[in-house]
Design a protein that fits this description.
Rossmann fold, transport, binds adenosine-5'-triphosphate, 4-stranded antiparallel β-sheet, 37% helix, ABC_transporter-like_ATP-bd, 299 residues, alpha/beta, nucleotide-binding, 8-stranded mixed β-sheet, 12 strands
């Protein structure tokens, strides 16, 4: 059964870089919640504020306004439980692993830190189990160094390493964008399986709105640090209500995503205007379908 109480929530969070006239809202009054057994896709073009949200969640940045809530409690600096519960998978599986260490070492390290009571034999068994979870053969993989692995295999090791501490939330920032097209779906399927079998709450960050369909129950579309549209994936993809979401979808060469091409073409003539208007701060929110909301463009 899906737990409807959020594991993690951003409550009206803003992050500003720079000062005065040159300041940029990398995140502006962003609120969303991650729930066990569900994936939320955070979608937007480069510079829309996706990675800033990930860094806020990973506590690399402090919010200028708003707060993070972990199981309903405001997150403080000293929450060791939070650090263990919230793990990240990075875009670049090549730089995420230390070339001097074996797979066994990479997976044992978090176990040594977070499960101090394990014997050497128990750690070895735990590493084998983690490798099996990410569909890699422990007998073949444990002794290998990162340079002996393919990109897809490295990303599976990164996922296994994140799982080693028993997380509740995984933040996956563009986890497939540096991989060959042929292995991308395998990684997304693996994340799906982790979500289901371990009841993880996933935040899937991507610039590619089409891939959100494979993993996410819900989608948030961001532009200029602001959430412009959010709702159930099917509803947002099949019936996008915000001009900026339609702009993103217009760039998707995917016949499975249905939208009235002619209707969007008229808007595409006005791309710059859509971006300019979508970037304007807009506090008004409208519900356009069950659980499906937009921040209407002002003016
Ligand atoms: N440390 C920083 N200092 C100054 N400006 C920053 C910093 N980090 C992000 N920004 C700015 O904040 C805005 C949002 O950036 P962010 O990296 O969150 O976007 P993004 O959607 O993740 O883009 P990408 O997909 O390219 O990573 C951008 O205008 C960016 O230039």
């Amino acid at each position: 059964m899906i737990d409807q109480n959020p594991v993690l929530a951003l409550d009206n969070v803003s992050k500003v870089f720079g000062k005065g006239d040159t300041s940029i809202y990398a995140a502006r009054s962003v609120s969303f919640a991650l729930r066990a057994g569900r994936t939320l896709a955070l979608v937007g073009e480069s510079g829309s504020g996706k990675t800033t949200c990930a860094r806020l969640i990973m506590r690399e940045y402090q919010p200028d306004q708003g707060q993070l809530l972990f199981r309903g409690v405001p997150v403080t600096h000293s929450m060791a439980a939070y650090r263990r519960a919230v793990q990240m998978i990075f875009q670049d599986p090549f730089s995420a692993l230390n070339p001097a260490h074996t797979v066994q070492y990479h997976l044992e390290r978090p176990l040594r830190l977070h499960q101090k009571g394990l014997s050497a034999a128990q750690r070895k068994a735990a590493v084998a189990e983690l490798l099996e979870r990410v569909k890699l053969d422990p007998a073949l993989m444990a002794a290998k160094f990162p340079h002996e692995l393919s990109g897809g295999q490295r990303q599976r090791i990164s996922i296994a390493r994140a799982l080693a501490v028993g997380p509740e939330v995984i933040v996956a920032d563009e986890p497939t964008s540096m991989l060959d097209v042929s292995v991308r779906l395998g990684i997304l399927n693996l994340l799906n399986e982790m979500k289901r079998s371990l009841g993880l709450a996933l935040l899937y960050i991507t610039h590619d709105i089409a891939t959100a369909r494979y993993v996410a129950e819900d989608i948030i579309v961001m532009y200029a640090g602001q959430i412009v549209e959010w709702g159930p994936t099917e509803s947002v993809l099949n019936d996008p209500q915000h001009a900026y979401t339609r702009l993103l979808l217009s760039a998707v060469p995917d016949p499975d995503i249905r939208f009235a091409q002619s209707q969007y073409n008229a808007e595409m003539a006005d791309v710059d205007n859509i971006r300019r208007l979508s970037a304007a701060p807009q506090p008004v929110i409208s519900e356009v379908g069950p659980g499906h909301f937009i921040r209407p463009i002002a003016g």
